[in-house]
Amino acid sequence: MSNTKPVVSVHWLAGQLNNPQVAIADCRFDLAHPEAGYQQYQKAHIPGAYYFDLNQDLSAPAVQHGARHPLPHLSQLADKLAASGVNSSETLVVAYDDSRLAFAARLWWLLRYLGHDNVALLDGGWSAWQAAGYPVTSVISQPKQGKFVPQPREEWVADREQVKARKDLPEVVLVDSRDRDRYRGEREPIDPIAGHIPGAVNFPWKEITDEGGYLRSIPEQQKRWAAQKQASEIIAYCGSGVTACVNLFSMELAGIHHAKLYAGSWSDWCSDSSAPKMGKEEPLAGSNPSNK
Q1: Active site residue 238
Q2: pLDDT for 131-185, tens place per residue?
Q3: Could you tell me the CA-to-CA distances from 122 to 3, 30, 34, 73 in Å, in that order?
Q4: Candidates 27, 238, 245, 270; catalytic one
């Protein structure tokens, strides 16, 4: 089933629950309580949805010195997608969470990185589905026999050395996707060192949705990235390469299709003793400084 829209409504999805060409991915997760997402899935989820765990499915195991959420082993993710009924380039995957796209966007980006462009995010996520009164179930979806062959777009990923070499070039924009106080080094709840990569500008990922988790309009997304659209290269990062994918999704909506993900992000950068942790603070970017 071909889909040209990167976002779908709960009303649209409710009409596709029996469509074999649509696969639904539940990506709910809680960083503080890693088991909570699957427990929520077991209790209630959109009928037919398969659960994708950030730690188990959408990331490889963390390493002592490097990224907290490394990119997953491609063969393992491909097997999980196939068992969820996803066929390469054919099945439309609709991903949702209850965290303003924080984890669903990671799957969205991973699928496209693996060459599967037929993927969309559910506007408003789980809370919008519940608010609309659509059916939920506790029945665990059983494995299917899909066929997923990954075709990774390696050029979509930047590593630490590439960031070091390119971040100060005038035609390159380095985007820090974390909350403003983390960017400024005033607070760091997860990583051992506070600060940001010198030269990065701050576009907090939460600002692409409203408080209810609904996406802001396309014109708002375009306005958000207007100054960056002419850059020859954009590299996005966050704490560990997860919520930066929300900004990459926003860029896609705004018509920017060439941005890269620094997959290791701040967790990788601050593990390198030779990398500067925070230089002169850059002007804050983004559309609404009141959002956190």
Answers
A1: yes
A2: 999 999 999 999 999 999 999 999 999 999 999 999 999 999 999 999 999 999 9
A3: 13, 19, 22, 25
A4: 238
